[in-house]
Amino acid sequence: MRVEMLPSSIPASGTQFLVSFLINDTIAIDAGAIGFLADLGRQNRIKHVFVTHEHLDHIASLPIFLENVYQPGPDCVELLAARDVLDFLHDDIFNGRVWPDFIRLSHPEDSFVQTTPLEILQPLHRDGLTITPVSVSHGVDTLGLVVEDGISAVAFPSDTGPTEAIWQYLSTVQNLKAVFLEASFPASQAGLATLTGHLSTATFAAEVKKLSSQVRWIIVHRKARFAAEIAREIDAMQIPNVEFVCPGTVYEL
Ligand SMILES: [Zn+2]
Ligand SMILES: [Zn+2]
Question: Domain boundaries in the chain?
């Protein structure tokens, strides 16, 4: 499968301010940046948007995206998230004040968006992929996603601090090729990482040890201010198969 983390900073910096992964062009994991893609054709190809949790870096461009891709008629984007996240988006974003109520305005014959609730460990099948939500540990309820295409599997734990369930689940997944795991903070900010439900470089290294399979560990979600410090610390640890994500690069996995 083809996976790209969309850029929302200078790509060469290896950091991004907003979170969106595109899979095979038609599926997005998180909506931080999809609506800010300058190429509207690429926005129009996205048909299913999974939202892992409601933090702003994961939903920032969703209102713009839904407006950009709307076309009169029954075909519309599918928005998939946990029930409470869908309720939050309706109550606090698409509420007719912050942004039009695209959910109420949608009818079978003319739709902006169709919502589908996600349930933990209930896989869905979309565009030839099987996508399984797994809980992670982030302060607000957050779903990691495991994506399989019959040949390979890729894990997107989203934002998380030290966690367990997703590693247990991944130990049962065949052909796991890569994990896009966050390392938000350097060791000097370990306390802040704990308070905010993120990984520091030290807890990142401990999470990697929880999975016995040999996979590519692709680091995402470095806080921009600490990106260089995180990179130095990770490099010094010499953990096998670890790399930093290159936003805008397509990974063939
Ligand atoms: Zn978050
Ligand atoms: Zn985030």
Answer: 2-252
**pLDDT digit string, tens, across residues 153-163:** 999 999 999 99
134-149 in b/e form (b: 16+ CB < 10 A) is bbbbbeebbbbbbbbb
Q: Which ligand is nearest to the CA of 221?
A: 2
Read off the pLDDT band of 12 (50, 70, 90).
confident
How many angstroms is it from 73 CA to the middle of ligand 1?
34
Architecture (CATH level 2) of domain 2-252 = 4-Layer Sandwich (3.60)
> Which numbered ligand comes closest to the C-alpha of 140?
1
